[in-house]
Amino acid sequence: MNTEEITQALQTEQALLEKELGGVAVADSENPGGFVGKEPDMNDENPADVVEQGHEQEVFSRNQAITGDLEARLVHVKQALEAITNGTYGVCRVCKETIAPARLEANKAATTCINHAD
Ligand SMILES: [Zn+2]
Fold first, then answer.
1. Which residues contact residue 74 at a Cβ distance below 8 angstroms, ignoring those fewer than 6 apart?
2. Which secondary-structure segment (H or E) carries 13?
3. Which terminus, N or C, of the chain has the lesser number of Cβ atoms within 10 Å?
4. Per-residue pLDDT reduced to its tens digit, 107-118
5. How far is CA 46 from CA 43, 51, 54, 57, in A?
6. Rounded distance, CA 4 to CA 108, Å?
């Protein structure tokens, strides 16, 4: 297995995910290493504007949802990179069985076999 190529692909994805997270999220002060969706800037000029407030709530909800997805993916990417470092890449971290190559090909960040996919 060419782990160098996989490492590169995963590192590229990690950088991209962190960049995207930077756009929609801020570091979670209560959860080190975690993120929370960015709150949009409140409209100080016209705080009573209900339409604007509704829009901001919408932006915040969307940021939260995107943050959750990006964060979950980032965790997987980091776990896969760790597995490469530890020499356990391609092995299910739950049952220690070899992960099917087709699964790894479809998802380089997979650290579980198909039976233990979350
Ligand atoms: Zn498994």
1. 14, 17, 18, 21
2. helix 3-24
3. C
4. 999 999 999 997
5. 6, 11, 13, 15
6. 12
Q: How far is the CA of 65 from the centre of ligand 1 (A)?
A: 28
Q: Is this prediction's pTM over 0.85?
A: no
Ligand 1 center from residue 22 Cα (angstroms): 33
Give 71's contacts (C-beta < 8 A, 6+ positions apart): 21, 25, 34, 35
Compute the distance from residue 4 Cα to the ligand 1 centre, in Å: 24
Band the pLDDT of 40: cuts 50, 70, 90.
confident
Q: Cα–Cα distance between 25 and 22 in angstroms, integer? A: 6
